[in-house]
Amino acid sequence: MSSILLEPIQDKCAWRGVDIRDHTDWIYTLSPQALAALEQGLEQLAARSLNAPNFSRDDLQIATPEVQAEFDRISDELENGYGFVVVRGLDADKYSEADMANMYYMMGHFMGTPVTQNTKGDLLGYVQNVGDKNDKMTR
Hints:
The chain has 139 residues and is mainly alpha-helical. It contains 4 helices and 2 strands.
């Protein structure tokens, strides 16, 4: 059993909106090399008719040490920083929904091991604004 914390958490992960609103260290813009690697991954997946979540890191031959280091930095922020990141650089108008899912799933593989995102066992979650701000039960 875990002990009850009696002191406030002082780590970077214990943030409030007011604490980070003027910071940008949680925003990552993918480098041209990372974007090229993801596009190369799309080509490899298409050649084998694979789509998320039915591929693994072993199915991809795309990560140079520099690209892997980029994903390692993002992963470190998730694990040891604020606990979230905003990743920029993917042009949603350029890719199909399936390609976008494949690229996000590829990024996940290069940052760790996919785990279920909900009780249905989905390995890739989709964010949608379906809430009613006037309903306290909406999340």
